[in-house]
Amino acid sequence: MSNESPQRPRGPGGGDGPPGEPRERSQRSLFVGALLVGVLVLLFFGAQDGVGKPFGQGPLELIEFEKLLRKNEVAEVRFKDTQAYVTLRPGDLSGKRDSLNGTVNFSSPDAALRIEKLISELAEERQITTRVYTERTNALLYQVLIWFLPTLLLIGALYFFLFRQMRGPGGPGSIINFGKSRHRIVGDKADVTLKDVAGIEEARQDIEEIIAFLKNPEKFSRLGGRMPKGVLLVGPPGTGKTLLAKATAGEAGVPFFSVSGSDFVEMFVGVGASRVRDLFEKAKENSPCIIFLDEVDAVGRQRGSGLGGGHDEREQTLNQILVEMDGFDTDKGIIIMAATNRPDILDPALLRPGRFDRQVVIGLPNQEAREKILRVHARNKKLALDVDLKVLARATPTFSGAELEALLNEAALAAAVRGGDSITMADLEEARDKVRWGRQKRSWKMLEEELKATAYHEAGHALVAAVVDGCDPLHKVTIIPRGRALGLTMSLPEQDQYSLSRKQILARIAMAFGGRIAERLFTDDLSTGAANDIEQATNLARKMVTEWGMSELGPIKFAASDSETVFIGREMGRSSEHSQDTLQKIDAEVARILDEQYKLAERVILEHRDALERVAAALIERETISGSDVRDLIDGKPLPPQPEPREAAPAAGGDAAAGEDASGGGDASGGEDAARAPVAAVAESAPEHGAGEVVSEARDAAGDDDGRP
What we know:
alpha/beta; Signal recognition particle alu RNA binding heterodimer, srp9/1; four-stranded mixed sheet
């Protein structure tokens, strides 16, 4: 498949022009620049031409020159432009001057004419015998240019930049074209097709139906069906919304107009609505066609949500989009595609059938979808024989398609840096951890006390995760700093999960407290490393009470219905929905849940003190231990010797052969130390549907699992 995709010529609103247009524009720019340089050079030499030799101590002043004329002490005067070359009589040389020659500079040609007239009058009166010579040149032209050139240059610069430079494709637009659309027309052939889209089969089916309708509308219209007017792609960042739109452009066989939602919004009134009209006018000229609005939430936010009652340019732009999509003058041959990761803030009028007939939800991929995505991105990579993409897919819950692509790319870079011939499973596991939590920081040198506290902290998380029922199986525990964390305890679910039970949530809260309790019991002190653990445990407990109905207060939703939607204008006019007594009950119930799980984790650690000591000692010795090592230490078994790293043999093809599932890879599940800094790191919420991630690691505590995708 070719890596180059020919582009159609763009229209005057923002499309690509003819291939020769950039060269012509460059030639015009060079011509204007050369013309300006030529004018400046002409002025310089014109000003220098005729400069005479001054008297010994400087040029002759005009007043002194008149006095010398009236005394008949000037032998000869040669006028040229705005200068006069003067020769004095030999007997008039005084001590102040060492030459008989000099120049007189006039402020304008009129001043020179006045002196000529004075000499003529004095000569007629026979008072002087001065010889006069006059040489006429283009001095007047020089004077006019000197006076008017700055104004002409200013006007020319304004014309050049506003009407020429900013008129080109992709530019911000000139004053004349300011209301023109900035869309791009994607060519018939593109680098991305539906073959490059994996893991979102349902979304692909919706897009394939639209493409089939465009190619063969009679197949559907004979049964009374009509083409959908709009398709809204909804999903978290990195799940493939824009990729799906690119694939649609590559296979639709009709003009594909691509524009960003932010391109419509400007500081000038009426520009957004004008660009919408221009976009749809050009689309009607090329009907049937597809218009793709990327990040539509930039212009489609709910109306009436801002402060003040003045004119809102964004709302006028949205109104124009609504009219164009389903108004009196709609065109049946135009399909609107849009993408957003914030459907909750879009205006309801934009989401209704007739405008966006379909909402295609693209969630985070499950294990099977992740494996397909990995195989697509591994097609051009050389994998070793020990690589099993099925195991890697299981080891990457909650990874989006973009993160999976980044994972394989990081693994390829790591293999190249170490000089390997292929990408090994170890490269992929390290790349997975790097994408999720950051690069290892082996250069950090911790004090012995801090290293010991970190080891006990992570051992506390690991012990609670291994003992408390409801926690997912441990995968790996490490005290090697990574990202903002001094240590990580990673666990891995046995299969994809789309909801969380009360038992699992309580186990995660207990696991989050394990690190703090271990620090307090074994180091006789507390650190800031548990800040994120406490934050995430509190968030989980509060959601159990206010959203999930998992408390003694009963199945009541105490949180606001649009608590995740930030509309300042509405929030300022909204009163509290709950009384002080209800708020006190909520806080008391949250505190009760946290206290119960804290005591549970403390009891587990006290009952397994010796096991925790062994886990902490192993961490200090080896820095990283596996989940099976933790279970052996709890059972009192000795650890096997550490394996020596070796280079794996390269596989024959791009995909690796099936390998042994050694409990996979991981998601953090407990105890990021947040760099153990005085200020806790910002929490990173887990995706809404969970996708099976066991999140009790401090940064990724799954407080947002609401039960369904």
